[in-house]
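Why run this: before we spend reagent on co-expression, it is cheaper to look at a predicted model of the complex and decide which construct boundaries make sense. The entries below are exactly what would go into the expression plan.
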Amino acid sequence: MKTSTRTELLEHSRAKVELFKTYLSTYLNIISRVKHIKKIHIYDLLCGEGVYSDNSEGSPIAILKTIKDHYFSNNKSCPNIDLWLNDNGLSDIESNKSKIQRVKEHSKDIYKPSNLNIQFTEIDYSKIYKSVLDKVESFSEDKHIIFIDPHGYKNIKLSQITQLLNFGNSEVILFLPLFDMYRFANKSYDKNFKGGKSLNSFLNDCFYNKQMNFTTVFDFTEKLKGAFVNHNTKCFVDTFLLEKEKSNYYGLFFFTPNALGFEKMLEAKWKVDTDQGRGFSIRIENQSSLFQVLETSSYPTELITFLKNGHKTNSELYIFGLKKGYLPKHTIEILKPLRKTNKLLVKDLAGIIMPKNGYYLAYENYKTNPVKIVKYFLN
Ligand SMILES: C[S@@+](CC[C@H](N)C(=O)[O-])C[C@H]1O[C@@H](n2cnc3c(N)ncnc32)[C@H](O)[C@@H]1O
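The model came back. Tokens follow.
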């Protein structure tokens, strides 16, 4: 059998699965401690083969193993979970078998907690969307994580993703072949270009029918992210680039209404790729230190400009960093020298100067009535 992207999980896909796994494991840890959440619904709507011919594991197996690991490292307990695994394709590895059949078989030997329900289906993606939306709406008190990992982008509609996010109880992880899309994006506006119809309608959907021009794959990614933000104003949106081979990028887009969820996804990103936290690159072999990462990024300058632009609270600073793709620890690393030299003062609302190691940039300070509301003063 000839190996291909469909029979083996290539490096960038492994990074994608790894990122998803890291995120899910953190997510389960957080949610399991929130008493009022009765159930988590996990959807892998285009879940693939389960296990590939090189024995690498795809997303459904990664999900099951993450749940199992969570269960055993938490005193044999885990939140109630409904897992929906769907794929309507025929296996590229075993003839006469559907992909979902293989997933079912490979999942048999993985330990499953009794409060985990699994549904295996072979529904066409264009038809499953409505049922998922109904579930997200009906179980509005529960949490929903929806993983959408297509081969292309033909079936993907931004309006549907926006609807799934509308109830404020779901997160969406969407994987897109950015380089393939970018290659044809400008051309797709040309009416004589026959192959660009679905891309053109995707772009028109994103940019409200305004004709765009994209200069590089990075420019394309940033503009797409901007469009996703515009359509989902109540959500945090981030992207993570994965390089399949030199300059062939895939992108993982992450949507969540929750600041903590967003911080945890950023953490997962930085864990998978310590360089810039932007994405996994096959060229990156040496792990950069935090200091090196910040040295080459524009975040320090952006942060200083933000601080100079009026006094900010710790909550504002927390969100600013996250939206730029940086964690509180990165922000603190930049602010430390400024505080040492008194170029930056942190005061509470009564004007009392806070201790030098107090930044109050944790999620708890942002979310719960902050222990101290601080303002940052830059001289
Ligand atoms: C990129 S693969 C998913 C890989 C998987 N996440 C993994 O980690 O192994 C995309 C999958 O979408 C499935 N697919 C394509 N079009 C579909 C459709 N219209 N409805 C349902 N599944 C579809 C394909 O059979 C394929 O397995």
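Residues 39 and 142 are 5 Å apart (CA to CA). The longest strand covers residues 236-245. Bring this page to Monday's planning discussion.
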